């Protein structure tokens, strides 16, 4: 089969696979209700209804857990942009259209549940959260952007391969955030969200796998472009870099997790480095992808060194603070 298929041809060729994946998804999915995972009894009115405004001391989450959960929520809030992206690239006809709408409906639960939990437990500043949501959604998002910020034309393969990695990354991030919360309610909620993300990942991963079989070189071109320019959709969140550092140092999502738990499992599932159907440019890009993996490994090692230095500085600051407090207490007792 020609390796220069148009997106319209690819949509047609992959339609039976999409229908098969939808049928599997509908059998495997578990319906759930966001309100069942929110501790409503912890909630109380804010100032506008005669209650109290938020106080930082009310939050029971650690800085890492709070930052990660808010980052995850703001990422989910950009659902309108994600819906637009896949609708434009997948079409709204037949099985493709059904999936676009079904996926959107399932994803919408995540933002609802996370926001309700955070507000009911008073874990975050609701005013700041709403201000940031407005800015985030106004910015929008497009995965068709390289490391220099330049937009490139997206193909169907670009889109479906990007979400194969992104959905898995989101699943891992939500799951690790749940553990970091040290709250069984939050952990159960994020387990439920992670289960949705896992099924979404399976859909996109297996559709992409079928695409690799249909047009391996064409698919390889997109795979290389996606991984060499990969950014999580949350990168448009205001103050993203600082938040990403907190999340990474806290062990929720860091370069090692990205490489070992997201990138490599998908590449192994597709047997990228074992396949023998890449030729010409496809084979060259597969070799180049190996170098991208080496660069990611180098990034992991550099991060671990930087992380240990940061943690050591934080330990020293904590020790000095503890010693100062002890001295103040001793002096007060002596007087």
UniProtKB/TrEMBL annotation:
Domain of life, source organism: Bacteria
Cofactor: Fe(2+)
InterPro entries with a match to the protein in the record: Fatty_acid_desaturase-2, Ferritin-like_SF, RNR-like
Pfam families per UniProt: FA_desaturase_2
Subunit details: Homodimer.
Entry's family note: Belongs to the fatty acid desaturase type 2 family.
Keyword field contains Plastid: no
Alphabetical UniProt keywords: Coiled coil, Fatty acid biosynthesis, Fatty acid metabolism, Iron, Lipid biosynthesis, Lipid metabolism, Metal-binding, Oxidoreductase
Protein name from the UniProt record: Acyl-ACP desaturase
Native source species: [Mycobacterium] burgundiense
Coiled-coil zones: 286-313
């Amino acid at each position: 089969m020609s390796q220069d298929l148009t997106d319209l041809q690819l949509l047609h060729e992959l339609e039976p696979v999409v229908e098969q994946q939808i049928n599997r998804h509908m059998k495997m999915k578990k319906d759930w209700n966001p309100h069942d995972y929110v501790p409503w009894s912890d909630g109380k009115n804010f100032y506008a209804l005669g209650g109290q405004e938020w106080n930082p001391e009310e939050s029971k989450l650690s800085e890492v857990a709070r930052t990660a959960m808010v980052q995850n929520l703001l990422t989910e809030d950009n659902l309108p942009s994600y819906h637009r992206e896949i609708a434009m690239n997948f079409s709204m006809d037949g099985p493709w259209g059904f999936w676009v709408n079904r996926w959107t409906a399932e994803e919408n639960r995540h933002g609802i549940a996370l926001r309700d939990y955070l507000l009911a437990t008073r874990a975050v500043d609701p005013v700041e959260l709403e201000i940031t949501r407005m800015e985030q959604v106004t910015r929008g998002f497009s995965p068709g952007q390289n490391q220099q910020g330049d937009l490139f034309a997206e193909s169907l393969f670009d889109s479906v391969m990007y979400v194969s990695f992104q959905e898995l990354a989101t699943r891992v991030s939500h799951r690790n955030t749940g553990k970091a919360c040290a709250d069984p309610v939050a952990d159960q909620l994020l387990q439920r969200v992670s289960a949705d993300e896992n099924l979404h990942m399976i859909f996109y991963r297996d559709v992409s796998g079928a695409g690799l079989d249909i047009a391996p070189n064409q698919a390889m071109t997109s795979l290389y472009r996606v991984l060499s320019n990969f950014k999580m959709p949350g990168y448009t969140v205001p103050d993203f870099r600082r938040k990403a550092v907190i999340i990474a140092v806290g062990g929720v999502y860091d370069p090692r997790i990205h490489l070992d738990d997201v990138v490599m499992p998908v590449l192994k599932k597709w047997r990228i480095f074992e396949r023998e159907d890449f030729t010409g440019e496809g084979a060259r890009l597969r070799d180049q992808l190996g170098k991208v993996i080496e660069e990611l490994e180098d990034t992991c090692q550099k991060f671990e060194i930087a992380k240990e230095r940061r943690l050591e500085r934080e330990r020293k600051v904590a020790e000095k603070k503890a010693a100062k407090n002890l001295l103040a207490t001793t002096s007060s007792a002596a007087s």
